[in-house]
Design brief:
Length: 160
């Protein structure tokens, strides 16, 4: 019987950061991109995001102008009030959440603005996008708190 790839994943991810970095820097990007969709779907079939929600606890998405407009309207708030209540500008000039965990994350790990969530949240964890190889530092960071990113990286490294 094979060991479950997700068993003790946080420790294994921490231990494999150097290996992941080397892989991402040397990987055949076209080969990786061809494999991503299947690996993304496989990882999502094995990981229950609602049982985890690490992304909502540890990560702030960027809130782009369309996100701010859409969410403020949904919450029946003025955009300026939404910004002053929930957001601040980070050192990269992006609007991000003022606090962690996300104020829209419920005790049941459901998002109270799920249908209106920012595009970064819709796209996270980017395991079906070229972001995986184009932004290796982000992929490495995400692998430390997202079991889906960890799973995809483990499978990519094993297949090389």
């Amino acid at each position: 019987m094979t060991e479950d790839i997700l068993h003790n994943w946080e420790k294994k991810s921490a231990d494999h950061q150097k290996q992941y970095k080397q892989f991402l820097n040397r990987a055949d990007k076209n080969k990786v991109l061809k494999a991503l969709q299947d690996l993304h779907e496989e990882a999502f079939s094995r990981v229950d995001c609602l049982a985890c929600a690490n992304c909502c606890r540890n990560y702030s998405p960027r809130f782009k102008t369309p996100d701010i407009k859409r969410i403020a309207k949904y919450l029946k708030m003025k955009e300026g009030d939404f910004i002053s209540t929930y957001l601040h500008v980070d050192n990269e000039g992006d609007y991000v959440l003022q606090s962690k965990p996300c104020p829209f994350l419920g005790a049941d790990n459901f998002c109270s603005i799920y249908e209106q969530r920012p595009s970064d949240c819709r796209r996270f964890p980017y395991t079906d996008e070229d972001v995986m190889v184009k932004r290796p530092s982000l992929t490495l960071k995400n692998s430390t708190f997202c079991p889906i990113v960890y799973h995809v990286l483990e499978r990519l490294v094993a297949a090389k």
